[in-house]
Amino acid sequence: MPRRGFTLIELLVSMAIIGILIALTIPAVQQSREAARRTHCLNNLKQIGLATVQFHDNMGCFPPGRIMPRPGDPPELSCGRDTPSWLVRILPYLEQGNFAEGWDMREYYADHPEEVRTLAIPTYICPSRRTAASARIPTVTVNLTAPCGCFGRQTFFSGATGDYGGNHGDISPGTSGLSTDFYWGGNGNGVIISSRPYCVADQPRDWIDKIRYRDITDGVSNTILAGEMHVNDQNINHPPEDGPIYSGWHFSFSTRLGGIDVPLATGKDYVDSRLYSFGSWHPGICQFAFADGSVHALSTSIDQKILGYLCVRNDGEVTTGF
C-alpha cells in the first residue's frame, strides 16, 4: 500500500501559513493586553481621585503636595522639609489604614523604618510601566548637575516609587531662584501644591496654604487633580528622574506641572530634562483624575495652552470638551 503524508513542499507551505497567522495574532493580543493595563491604570487614578476628594470632605481642604518653607521664613514657618508627601496623607482613604499608621507626618521621611518607606501599593503603580514588586529604589548617593533645582552630591534614601503625581499647576509663578518660584510653599497654582508649615517645637503641626473647593474658581470638573507622571524608560528607579513617592524632598517625586513650556510627554522615551512633566507609557494618551473625582484620558498632542488652563485652578480660562 502506498504511504500517505506531507511532501516537503506541503510541510513548508503549512509552516509558512502558521507563521503568518501567528504574526497577525500577536499585535492583536498585545493591543488587548495594553487596553486592559490602560483600564487598570485609569481605575487606579479613579481611586486616588476619590480618596483625595474624601480627604477634602473630611479635612476641609485638599492635602498639601509636600511641606516646603520659603527662603527667609521665620523659625515658626521653617520646619518640615522632607516630611512625607500627600500620597501618605490619603492612604487611610485608600483602605490602607494599617500602612498609614506606620507614618508620622511630623517626622522626616528618612527617619521612618525602611520597610515602611519601601512598601509599594498597587494603587500607585501603572501596570504598563512596572509592578509593585519592582517599584523601589535603594539608598543611593548621586552627583546632581542640575535640572531638579539642586547641585552637588545628594543622598536619596530608599523608598517605593510610583506613577501618579498631584497637579502642582503651571510654571508661570517662576523658576528664577526667587522666593516666589512655583516650588516654594504656597506659590503653586494647581490643586496639590507645596505648602508652608505651621511649626510647633520645630515640627509641622499644620499647613498654611490650604486649597479648598472655593479656590478652584475654574470649576472642579475643569481642573486636573492628579495624573500619570512621566518617567523615561531609561531612568526607571533611578533618582532624581524617578524617586521615592512618599518623600517630600523633591516636588517632582509626587507632583508635576503642565502648560506652556511643560507639555505632556509624548512617549516613554521622551526626555524631560527638568523633571516637570506629566506623561504615560500608553500610546498617544496620558490619563488624569480631575478635582471632581472624574477621570479622563488626554491626547499627548494637546495644546500646551489648553493643558495649562486645565492645570491652573484660578486663571479664569474655563476649558470644556477637552
Q: What is the subunit arrangement here?
A: single chain
The largest β sheet comes out as: 5 strands, mixed
What are the segments in which pLDDT stays under 50 over at least 5 consecutive residues?
none
| Order of strands, widest sheet | 11-6-10-12-13
Proportion of residues in helical segments: 10-25%
Average residue pLDDT: 92
Number of strands: 13
Estimate the global geometry from the Cα principal axes: globular
How do the helices and strands follow one another from N- to C-terminus?
A: HEHHHEEEEEEEEEEEEH
Strand content: 15-25%
The number of helical runs is 5
Distance between the termini: 74 Å
Layout: helices, strands, pairs:
Blueprint: H1 8-59, E1 66-67, H2 86-89, H3 97-100, H4 114-117, E2 136-137, E3 140-144, E4 152-156, E5 159-160, E6 164-169, E7 194-195, E8 197-200, E9 203-207, E10 224-228, E11 255-257, E12 285-290, E13 295-299, H5 304-311
Parallel strand pairs: 1-7, 6-11
Antiparallel strand pairs: 2-5, 3-4, 6-10, 8-9, 10-12, 12-13
